[in-house]
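pls ignore typos typing on phone
NA7 + seq
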Amino acid sequence: MNPNQSSSVRQVDAVVVGAGFAGLYMVKKMRDDLGLTVQAFEAGQGVGGTWYWNRYPGARVDSQAYIYQYWFSDELLGEWDWSERFPAQPETERYLNHVADKFDLRKDIQFGTRVTSAHYNETAQRWTVTTDGGQTVEAQFLLMGSGGLSAPVVPPFRGYESFKGQCIHTAYWPKEGVDFKGKRVGVIGTGATGIQVIQTIADQVGHLTVFQRTPNYTIPMRNPKYDDAKRAALRTEYPVLKERVHDTFAGFNYDFTDRSFLDIPFEERQEMLQKLWDDGSLNFWIGGFREVFFDEKVNEEVSNFVRDRIRVRINDPQVAAKLVPSDHGFGTRRVPLENKYYEVYNRDNVELVDVKATPIDCMTEKGIRTSEGEYELDILIMATGFDAGTGALTRIDIRGRDGVSLNDAWSSGTRTTMGLQVHGYPNMFMTMGPFSPAAAFCNVPTCLQQQIDWITDCMQFVRDQGRQAVEATAEAETNWIAHHDEVAQMTLVHKTGTSWYMGANIEGKERRLIPYAGGANTYRKACDDVKARGFEGFALS
Ligand code: NA7
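k done
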């Protein structure tokens, strides 16, 4: 035992934070591939991460089931039956429970336990990890599977405490559900989450008031049920799909066309857009034209295509004007899939309040007060999003070399090397970290698996070299950030600047593109190149 380790503290090779898609796979890889001792901590009472917490009505994946899954086990691929193209939360949660059981992962996970701090001991080259239950564990490696969209945000409304009704953030949805019958319900937020909630509960509530600040572009979801024949057909595609997803811009099975939008005659490109639209998936966004992200003229035509399709579904032109986005271009913010969302606003029991025009002043005992008046509510749903990319990390007291806290280190600007490591934090690896596509511009399981495979190889390399620690060099980090920023600044996402992609939903947060915009395929190649060159840019000690 190292002289700096106290004998009463449990020693493991790796601590894993989280038991969602990333955490489960990390436990498996560390234990079964590297033969390490692992302790995972999970704040929830079960596995699932995002799919454990976000059990709000209508919660559903926006990637097709057949690519939103693990690829590491052919047996798993052969036995798991997806029921539809875009499964709802309970099904994905069941899938992750099945994975945990099948690979006996629970025995290395402690549930109901939140990691509160992780401090690096430079002499011992180990991390000391503490939990909200007062436990301490020491580990060589600290593996963050804490999620990119797992730190919920509630806007700091004045009078929050005075509201006498029930107030629920969508990411803390009660397991027993909520009874909406006859109730006056308010929803703040019309992002991917708000849209799913609104379209699901509108016909269950007494009255629904939607507080919308920014309307989003959406795509109508086509969600057929799967039968055995369809599932069998998909299974024959899995061997190709598992390679294909790593070879595309966004980790999906489809990718941009190589054709230039403006070189295609107007009628033909409109037909191409219609075909993509009819697929009823994110194909329209990330399987169409790359120029949508860079070229304002192209973006405007595509935006108009979508605006026209939204407008015709809403009976009242004044309501339609509020729901059709006009202050940003298509795809420069997250594009949700929807199912009969706009028809909700044709119902008598639904009211849309534009809180950009009439801002929320405060919460009151009875509900919400805007500059225009008070809205009385029994239930208020906060579909107000997350502190994306950095939030799950900075909410933990992480201290690296010289006791420098990650919060302080990032206060003058987020820094990561490929979203995998931070200089000054040896042996700490992240998944879905800032400046990687996994942070938002990727079918998350694709990028998580790629990152975790790379991390596993890197850890194996450290061990093969007979060394204890690996840390991104300051130079490699500076180079990656310069590349990240250069790519980011070419995009209209950066120019629009109002989304959580840019940190814009958090007051005081740095305005910088969080996900890497060069593509999952480009990123994967960059990671592979680093590995092929003996983990160049990552120093061993
Ligand atoms: P988002 O996409 O961050 O949406 C949050 C929504 O809440 C959005 O409509 C915000 O309006 C709104 N919001 C936030 N604060 C306020 C205040 N103070 N007043 C009014 N409205 C407010 O979160 P989601 O949970 O929908 O989605 C996050 C990701 O999780 C999603 O993309 C999926 O990948 C999974 P704004 O747009 O800022 O004007």
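The longest strand covers residues 136-144. The chain is about 30% helix and 15% strand. more later
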